[in-house]
From TrEMBL:
Keywords noted in UniProt: FAD, Flavoprotein
Keyword ATP-binding: no
Annotated GO biological process: respiratory electron transport chain
Positions of the FAD-binding PCMH-type domain: 34-215
UniProt protein name: FAD/FMN-containing dehydrogenase
Keyword Flavoprotein: yes
Family, similarity comment: Belongs to the FAD-binding oxidoreductase/transferase type 4 family.
Source species of the chain: Paenacidovorax caeni
Cofactor(s), names only, from the UniProt record: FAD
MF GO annotations: catalytic activity; FAD binding
Amino acid sequence: MTNLLDTLRATVGPAHVLAEGDLTAWEQDWRRRARGKALAVVRPGSTAEVAAVVRACAQAGTSIVPQGGNTGLSVGSTPDASGTQVVLSLARLNAVRAIDKDNLTLTVEAGCILQNVQAAAAQAGLLFPLSLAAEGSCTIGGNLGTNAGGTQVVRYGNARELCLGLEVVTPQGEVWHGLKGLRKDNTGYDLRDLFIGSEGTLGVITAATLKLFPQPAASLTAWAAVPSMEAAVRLLGLAHQHLGAGLTGFEVMGRFALSLVAKHMPQLRVPFMEREDVPYCVLLENADSESEAHARARFEALLETAFEDGCVQDAVVAESLAQAHGLWHIRESIPLAQAEEGLNIKHDISVPISRIPAFCEYTDALLAREIPGVRLVNFGHLGDGNLHYNVQTPEGSDARAFLRDQETHVNHLVYEAVARFGGAFSAEHGVGGLKVAELEKYQPPVALGMMRAIKQALDPQGIMNPGRVLRR
Ligand code: FAD
């Protein structure tokens, strides 16, 4: 191993091979539920250096864990406990390489922080729409590695739909230059889509060419109280009809989730909390290419129809950008409020939108029956059929003991319900090291066989993020 560390030091410079001292920031996952031990954290500064690091590791038979901002929620970016893995941090590959305004593309290196990618697009008067609460620290490499979703998927799609090309270092240390930025390219198998969402198990993304969009002339946000999940789905249908491509966000939040925000962030005023008859609220965003007046008129027409339909009990439309940000801030504070409340079990699931009301009715009742006192923190991207269907430990219970005794059972109940309603046990957070058993259980054998064949073909040595997505 000394030889490998020497080679790595010679490759990237001694200052960028961290093998001693406190490596917690790289070894522990964001939720602090997994802590590993790395042989070293290596921070290359260019694609050529990434390739050289991978070649050195391949030669030594040492496995590699690619890491961006380490904000992933499926334990995919931290090393195992063996002390033998190299964490390959992309943080220093953070250049904006090119912007092509006519082609509506931006080419950035993998370690670029998402917020900086958005800013680079805005500086050119354009929009890069990927947006999520971790955008101040997650990287575009990690976003593509996990095929991240976020709050704008209903209009712009997941990270996959926003990417036109990749540059990738293969497990053999070769560089695939695939940054053409073409909107049409039917020249054989789609290698780009193979790497997106592969969670660092097939290669290291070093750069990406991303799609840009015109910035909307105006963007409006509304907050609506709805009498049921079924009504929320009806409101979504009306929003599609009235706003068309203007509908850029559609989030649902359960009353208990919002009550946690009101409890732990009392400085935030959560609309309609005083109304006991409101089980869910919805946050809608309408981006308009004409003007604010046009956006407001369309929103008003939508809400009028929704009131008549009965799927909305009450609603407010933000009067200013500050108010709109305030409403989004409430939505984005739910995970933090949940953490303040104590330990919890997270599920990131998707179900066909039409089946979400029945899924919630069935699963809410099942959990209440099987696990008395259970508290559901249900919220998420309803416009994409994606719920964060989380379980808070019963009030006053010993949370650690609850998790020890009940987590597997709770996961089993929720994932069986998801399968029953034709859904997926991971919608946007990936499989990582956390849901490998679920992948084996819920993917059909034919699909699993193809996945294993791809892994074996691209990484026969099994050095890229082993044990993540697929078992070793
Ligand atoms: P990391 O955590 O470092 O890595 C994630 C995975 O990608 C790992 O498997 C890693 O090996 C791999 N990887 C990283 N970089 C590369 C690379 N260059 N090449 C190949 N593989 C790589 N996700 C959503 O989809 N939607 C949300 O709304 C959302 N909200 C979030 C809110 C919060 C507060 C937090 C903490 C997370 C949230 N996430 C969300 C999780 C999300 O996956 C990450 O925030 C983000 O996409 C990961 O980026 P990262 O740079 O931190 O990647």
